[in-house]
Amino acid sequence: MNIPVDLKYTKDHEWIRLENDHAVVGVTDFAQGELGDIVFIEVETVGETLEEGETFGSIEAVKTVSDLFMPVSAEVLEYNEALNANPELINKDPYGEGWIVKVKVDNPDSLNHLLNAEDYKDLIGA
């Protein structure tokens, strides 16, 4: 299982990576594996500022539909439009082409309370 050390993680299995003036958010390799074949992503929060823990979208797999939660307070800047035609990108490359949203983080220090790779491994029993 792939758990990159340069990311921060939530207990709800989202990851976040700071990139200059914005951050990228997606779901973990563990999450996509548990969900199975992903068939649809819905994000209707572009342009909205959400608090940590608020739902920014949903992810639908063959087995289930799950909410996506904002790891930190941030404004949703962009949705990965490639997921409309190819939602399986999340299954194939959850930390790369399968990113879900780009956000503007209110306070970059807020990432400090999220899980690091080791803590996330402990959470999922890896």
Brief overview, please?
This protein is an alpha+beta fold. It has a single domain, classed as OB fold (Dihydrolipoamide Acetyltransferase, E2P) (Beta Barrel).
3D architecture notes:
Helices cover 18% and strands 35% of the residues. The chain is an alpha+beta fold and 126 residues long. The protein has one domain (8-106): RNA polymerase II/Efflux pump adaptor protein, barrel-sandwich hybrid domain (OB fold (Dihydrolipoamide Acetyltransferase, E2P)), CATH 2.40.50. A 6-stranded antiparallel β-sheet has the order 1-2-3-9-8-5. Strands 4-6-7 form a 3-stranded antiparallel β-sheet, with no helix packed on it. β2 and β3 (22-27) form a beta hairpin. The protein starts with 7 loop residues before the first strand and ends with a helix.
Compute the number of helices.
4
Return the string of H and E elements: EEEHEEEEEHHEH
CATH architecture: Beta Barrel
What kind of oligomer do you see? single chain
Mean pLDDT: 96
Number of strands: 9
Going across the major beta sheet, what is the strand order? Answer: 1-2-3-9-8-5
Which homologous superfamily in CATH is the superfamily?
A: RNA polymerase II/Efflux pump adaptor protein, barrel-sandwich hybrid domain
Distance between the termini: 8 Å
User: What is the helical fraction, as a range of percent?
Assistant: 10-25%
Q: What coarse outline follows from CA principal-axis ratios?
A: globular
Secondary-structure map:
Elements: E1 8-9, E2 14-19, E3 22-27, H1 29-35, E4 38-42, E5 49-50, E6 55-61, E7 65-69, E8 74-79, H2 82-85, H3 89-92, E9 101-105, H4 117-124
Antiparallel strand pairs: 1-2, 2-3, 3-9, 4-6, 5-8, 6-7, 8-9
